[in-house]
Design brief:
This protein has 173 residues and is an alpha/beta fold. It has six helices and seven strands. A seven-stranded mixed sheet has the order 2-3-4-1-5-6-7, sandwiched between helices. α5 links the parallel β6 and β7. It binds guanosine-5'-diphosphate (GDP) and magnesium ion (MG).
Length: 173
């Protein structure tokens, strides 16, 4: 079995659901939680079946500890990241607009080729939805990102994000 490692950084405005996505995916889908004492990062292992072959990815997931409120995330957060997941809240248009500054921030800090995934979270809040799928898709392709919609509440779409990252990490490896 092939084993790859990936540092994945979560970005996006406060309250969009970054921590919730990580915790939910870890609890429901990780094969093994590896406790490495890395500050700010959470490490777990997940096996994927890609074209009848098993690939194991050791994910190092970086979550903010509220620094996004001050737009002051230290450069070490971005250093050597292989993938970025930029999250916004589908029921909060401002959080969608703000993803633009997270993309800029990302490119200021990272030079290597990167897997970028845009995630519209809180899909369950259908009545309050403010961002259309069309504008989200157009925007994500303009920044070279894949786009997914998720609901942590209904456990929707989370595994697709990590599956897609797995495919792209393999391509870059
Ligand atoms: P973060 O600041 O981006 O890490 O956001 P959190 O993970 O702390 O979530 C902020 C709030 O949004 C919390 O009250 C969560 O319970 C809520 N939340 C997260 N994901 C969802 C979702 O998919 N649907 C709904 N309705 N609420 C969510
Ligand atoms: Mg958080």
């Amino acid at each position: 079995m092939r084993t790859l490692e990936a540092k994945v950084v979560f970005l996006g405005s406060e309250g969009v659901g970054k921590t919730s996505i990580i915790n939910r995916y870890l609890k429901t889908s990780a094969d093994k939680e590896d406790s490495t004492p890395t500050i700010g990062a959470l490490t777990f292992t997940k096996k994927f079946d890609i074209r009848e072959k098993q690939v194991e990815i050791i994910f190092h997931i970086w979550d903010t500890a509220g620094q996004e409120r001050f737009k002051a995330i230290a450069p070490m957060y971005y250093r050597n990241a292989n993938a970025a997941i930029i999250v916004f809240d589908l029921s909060d248009y401002k959080s969608f607009t703000e993803t633009q500054s997270w993309v800029r921030e990302l490119y200021r800090n990272v030079q290597e080729p990167m897997v970028i995934t845009l995630v519209g979270n809180k899909l369950d809040l259908i009545q309050e939805r403010q961002v259309t799928i069309d504008e989200a898709v157009i925007y994500s392709s303009s920044i070279g990102a894949n786009y997914f919609e998720t609901s942590v509440k209904n456990d929707q779409g989370l595994s697709q994000i990590f599956m897609s990252i797995c495919h792209q990490i393999i391509r870059l490896a």
